[in-house]
Amino acid sequence: MPLLKIPNMPEKKFNFAKSYEDLQKITEWFEKEEIDLEEGIKKFEEGAKLVKELQEYLSKMENKIKELKKTNL
Amino acid sequence: MLPVLSVSEFIDQINGIIAGEFEIEGEISQYKISQGKWIFFDLKDERSVLNCFSTVFMLRAPLEDGMKVRVLGYPKIHEKSGRFSLTVQGVQMVGEGALKRAYELLKNRLEAEGIFNTERKRALPRLPKIIGVIASRESAAFGDFTRILNNRWGGLEIIIRHVLVQGEGAVADIISAFADFDACQENERPDAIALIRGGGSLEDLAAFNSEEVARAVYSSRIPVISGVGHERDVTLAELAADVRASTPSNAAEMLVPNRRDFFSELSFGLERMLENLNHNILHARHNTEQSLYLLSSRLEAPVTKAKSVLNMFANSFNKLMAVLSSQKTGLDFARRLLANCDPRNVLHKGYSITRNKKGRVIRRAKEVGTGEDIVIELSEGAINAIVKNS
Questions:
Q1: Whether pTM exceeds 0.95
Q2: What percent of chain B shows pLDDT beyond 70?
Q3: Which stretch, B187-196, B227-236, B336-345, has highest mean pLDDT?
Q4: Considering A6, B132, B268, B373, which has the largest number of Cβ atoms within 10 A of its Cβ?
Q5: Does any CB of chain B come closer than 8 Å to the CB of residue A43?
Q6: Measured between beta carbons, which residues in chain B are less than 8 angstroms from residue A51?
Q7: What whole-number distance in Å separates Cα of residue B76 and Cα of residue B82?
Q8: Minimal CA–CA distance to B73: which of B57, B53, B49, B98?
């Protein structure tokens, strides 16, 4: 499908969906009845980092508008 | 002199004279479908009646007796039957009443077919990355939609497929837009499609009420959210959509969360993690203290036991001492009592004890005879004596 690409819009390496998924996994991990403390602290730090990244991404990133060209009718 | 024609020649000539396209407005009556293929109806006004003919393939519009319509067709005398009729190529509803009726008829039919079934409706992705939009590029509706999206969320890819939303060609355009999105490659395919347009009269919304568009929405491989601004009836395209928003702005709101809400959700999640961690730390500390207590009490046990034995021993010893001392007191008393009873003490006071030769104590005078030897014991020493008389 011919998409009208807008130039000079570098693809950011940060994968929002992946990070959010990772964060959800961590959140779920914490829902367990008993957690290993050492691992918990590590996971919490990881979660805090993900939250920060997600917030930064959402605050900075703008929405892009592209146009899908019509196929010949 | 008039030329003599055969019937076929005459009909051919007449058909030649009347050939052409006509648009005729009237009311439908005697509407019927024969063998599932042929459509017959009369178009009439106050004075006249026109026979009309068409095929199911040509006329998709739902028709009914009493509807006011504008038909497009060409007149013809049929050779075999000699009947004059209008071969209809298209029908357009005229007036709100007819449109409304057509809408109801089609709605019922599609409903019976299950096009609007809630069970088959899909959920929108929670966090879409690519959003396809089918709308008029210049419309206020599309402007509202993207503005709300920008306010709420970032990092989205919005792919607009411009379409005519009303008038001739709108239906075909909208259908092809769905086809185009369906044909997108995996990495460019939207996570959801928003079908957006502003409000309008029933006539303006005709494309959104067409069977073809409703079916295109229904068959889309990508979940569809509709956002059509209107005050009255919901269009059939909206009924077929997976999710129906009330307006274009509302569609944007339903597609993406608000950044702020999302942020507070994230920090709430973090807080919960921290709480959980704290809870577990407290728990672990409690456990540690508990085990430490257990451990120390186990280590201390022999000492405690020895201590208690010692205590017990001390207690018993004290008791023993008490018994001993109380016994000693008793002994002294007895000893004093005994001392008081010692006959020698009595002798001190000047009493004496008299015994016969056998050593028996003499208590009465008649116990001895005259001339009997007796011994008188004194406090100090004794006197041997002889009884003079008794």
A1: no
A2: 96
A3: B187-196
A4: B132
A5: yes
A6: 266-267, 269-270
A7: 10
A8: B53
DSSP state of A24: H
Give the three-state DSSP class for B308: helix
Q: What integer is the mean pLDDT of B258-271?
A: 88
Average pLDDT over residues B193-212: 90
pLDDT digits (tens, 9 = 90+) for B86-131: 999 999 888 777 778 888 899 999 999 999 999 999 999 988 999 9
The encoded tokens of residue B219 equal 């068959």
In whole angstroms, how far apart are CA B271 and each of A16, A27, B3, B335?
21, 10, 103, 89
Asked if the structure places residue A16 within a domain, the reply is yes
The architecture in CATH of the region B7-93 reads: Beta Barrel (2.40)
Domain range for A33 is 12-57
What span, in angstroms and rounded, lies between the C-alpha atoms of B379 and B345? 8
In chain A, the number of structural domains is 1
Place of tokens 């006959």: B343
Quick check: A57 contacting B, CB < 8 Å? yes
Count other C-beta atoms under 10 Å from residue A17's C-beta: 14
CB-nearest to A65 from B160, B177, B270 is B160
- Classify domain B129-260 by CATH number: 3.40.50.2300
Q: Among B174, B168, B172, which Cα is nearest to B136's?
A: B174
Query: Is the confidence at residue A33, as pLDDT, over 80?
Result: no
Q: Which sequence spans correspond to the domains of chain B? A: 7-93, 129-260, 345-386
Res B340: pLDDT: 67
Residue among A29, A43, A57, A65 with most chain B CBs within 10 A, to mutate: A65
CB contact under 8 A, A37 and B162: no
Instruction: Please report whether residue A51 resides in a domain.
Output: yes
Interchain contact, A16 vs B127, CB within 8 Å = yes
- Within-domain flag for A63: no
- Strand residues in B116-156 grouped as ranges (E): 130-135
Interface contact flag, B146 A65, Cβ < 8 Å: yes
Cα angle B34, B35, B36; round to 5? 90
Helix (DSSP H) and strand (DSSP E) numbers for chain B:
9, 13
Report how far apart, in Å, the C-alpha atoms of B263 and of each of A7, A45, A50, B268, B338 are: 30, 17, 12, 8, 105
DSSP states along B254-274:
HHS--HHHHHHHHHHHHHHHH
Q: Which residues of B touch A44 (CB under 8 A)?
A: 270, 273-274, 277
Q: Which residues does B142 contact at the CB level (< 8 Å), separation at least 6?
A: B133, B135, B136, B160, B196, B248
C-alpha span between B41 and B50 (Å, rounded): 9
